[in-house]
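Weekly sync, protein design subgroup
Attendees: M.S., D.O., the rotation student, P.L. (late)

Item 1: inverse folding check
M.S. brought a backbone from last month's batch and wanted to see whether the design step gives back something sensible before we order anything. D.O. pointed out we never logged the input encoding, so this time it goes straight into the notes. Structure tokens as presented (351 positions):
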């Protein structure tokens, strides 16, 4: 044991989290699903999603046999949908290549879609009791502060240094508890915006604290301005109050989810609806436009202008009519979900 892990484990015993749903009946499958959900999402948001997911897909075989649409419907609202698609794909690979048993070798685990070095380390350590190291966002923050590491952790050189530190700090006993403990420290005390250093078990040796520079670590990513893209989302309604939805291609944003038809300009939208009409200016002026809003992805901002129209869909369009109730059970991107609920309440209000 080193001093860092020693103090951390003592703290973990009385103040760590011991009642998270994935800490109960710990299996590789349950830990794996939780680690994927937690990759870009906070614990309190993940818990209800995790519980619903486990009720529907209690084991690996059930997940592997499910339709992708069903999996994405249970991911709906969590964001970063590639995580859900990869989870599903990986379950099928385990079913086919590992006879349905979660692999126990690091190389096999890290070869599965959606599982990087840190996630593989977390699963092997916590569920399979093998000493592997993790370095997720929380751990990077804790170690960067503890050692006052100057540099952005996304930089390869800095990241390699942090992996080495993580390796040195991980004890050879109770490494599974240590894995949970360091994640807990990052999530509950050494938080991004308001670290509670007064309650921290490793404060006495924390360099950033000693230097009174906690807020500076970890260094931020060098700024790059995100580009802004425009999109018109068409809320096409028919006389039976059904809304037209199309399934997005597997690749690209919102891959595999159901969404509203998307266009770059009003003209393109009108032309797609009425291919035979030559001048579209009149048709453009008849569109009912809702207030535009911004949805931000990791690489760009998407300024969305919702456009409502009561009309039948052209015969050659690929998609389906759905009632509002049917749409609720589909995998929908968050902004589309929001628009449909506003649209529904408009119809309910107007009878
Ligand atoms: S003393 Fe503060 S900055 Fe240092 S590890 Fe603890 S909580 Fe983080």
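Designed sequence read out in the meeting:
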């Amino acid at each position: 044991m080193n001093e860092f892990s020693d103090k951390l484990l003592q703290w973990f015993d009385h103040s760590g989290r011991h009642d998270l749903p994935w800490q109960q009946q710990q299996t590789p499958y349950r830990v794996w699903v939780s680690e994927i959900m937690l990759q870009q999402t906070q614990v309190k948001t993940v818990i209800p999603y995790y519980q619903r997911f486990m009720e529907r897909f209690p084991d690996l075989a059930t997940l592997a046999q499910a339709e992708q649409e069903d999996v994405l419907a249970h991911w709906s609202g969590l964001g970063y949908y590639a995580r859900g698609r990869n989870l599903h794909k990986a379950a099928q690979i385990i079913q086919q290549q590992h006879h349905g048993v979660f692999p126990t070798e690091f190389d096999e685990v890290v070869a599965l879609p959606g599982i990087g070095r840190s996630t593989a380390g977390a699963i092997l350590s916590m569920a399979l009791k093998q000493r592997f190291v993790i370095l997720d966002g929380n751990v990077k923050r804790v170690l960067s502060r503890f050692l006052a590491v100057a540099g952005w952790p996304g930089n390869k050189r800095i990241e390699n240094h942090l992996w080495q530190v993580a390796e040195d700090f991980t004890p050879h006993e109770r490494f599974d508890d240590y894995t949970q403990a360091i994640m807990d420290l990052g999530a509950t005390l050494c938080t991004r915006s308001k670290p509670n250093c007064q309650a921290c078990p490793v404060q006495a040796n924390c360099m950033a604290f000693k230097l009174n520079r906690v807020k500076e670590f970890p260094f931020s990513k060098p700024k790059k301005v995100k580009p802004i893209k425009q999109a018109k989302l068409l809320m096409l309604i028919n006389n039976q109050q059904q809304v037209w939805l199309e399934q997005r291609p597997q690749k690209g944003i919102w891959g595999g989810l159901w969404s509203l038809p998307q266009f770059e300009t009003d003209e393109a939208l009108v032309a797609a609806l009425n291919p035979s009409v030559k001048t579209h200016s009149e048709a453009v002026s008849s569109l009912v436009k809702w207030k535009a809003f911004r949805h931000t992805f990791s690489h760009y901002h998407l300024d969305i202008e919702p456009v409502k129209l009561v009309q039948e869909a052209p015969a050659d369009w690929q998609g389906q009519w759905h009632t509002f109730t049917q749409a609720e059970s589909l995998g929908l991107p968050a902004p589309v979900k929001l628009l449909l609920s506003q649209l529904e309440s408009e119809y309910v209000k107007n009878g």
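Discussion: Residues 17 and 184 are 7 Å apart (CA to CA). The chain has 16 helices and eight strands.
Action: P.L. to compare against the previous round before Friday.
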